[in-house]
Amino acid sequence: MIGSSVSTLRISSEASVRLNSDGWIFKVGDAEVKLFGDPFSLEGDKELADLLGVTPAEAWKIKSMAFKNYWPKDMQEVRKLFPNIVSEDLNVQLLILSLFSTKLRDPQYRIWGVIIESSNSAGKSHLVKEVLRPLRPLENGELILEFSRLTGAYLERKFKDADLDRKIIYIQEAENAPTQLHLVLSEGKLKIGIVEREDGKFKPIEYEASGTPFIIITSTNWRMNPHLIHRCLIISLDESAEQTFKILRHQTRLASDFLFRERFLSFVAGCEKFFREMWKRTPHGCRGSNSFPTIG
Fold it and tell me: What is the pLDDT of residue 38?
């Protein structure tokens, strides 16, 4: 029995964890168990304790040590942090890598953004929503700026004297983007001189926004100038019949199997928490090193 071999095991650096598409695999000594749920919740501590045959307090120590030593070994494992996205493995990895390029110190080496093209109802919004969901609480909810439509005049006035560096601007179903957005991306600064009426008089006013944001645009018919495209990744979703079948099969199981749905959503929640910690622990100003910080 697993519990009998683990209950007397000294909590040490031997505890480890890895991520599979169907759960977190904890290894302690010779014992190995799978937790299909949220390992960062109290319920996760209790379930892990039952699986290992230890107390919830000991399970928490094992989990903490395991995650302190854990970092995804490659992009395939990072992609597994988004189990609610069916297939689209390469596209998920490209979107994540592009987002993390905002952590680079020198803006000239960052990717400006990602343009996701496909027909209506192909899953563009779902892909973006799932990848961005863990990041939405960060910076008091102001890391991600989401728009259905964005005009140049709004951009000039809304972000006056604002720091847009590393902000994520998400524009839904667009065919183009304002020239001002291209300027702030390429120059790291948007300085506008205009004349506006104030107190019945026309006065010259200067607006300035600084920093290099990251853009995500979904579109069915992108027609933007080539300068923006050259520094962005263009992603096309899989619209094959096989992919549609995989999505329908996943959705059918979620709708028909209540117990699976409950545990699956708990698993998704745990993956989101870990990805958010990955983002927070990856410092700004990276030079592209292969070393990563650990999550305690």
Answer: 96
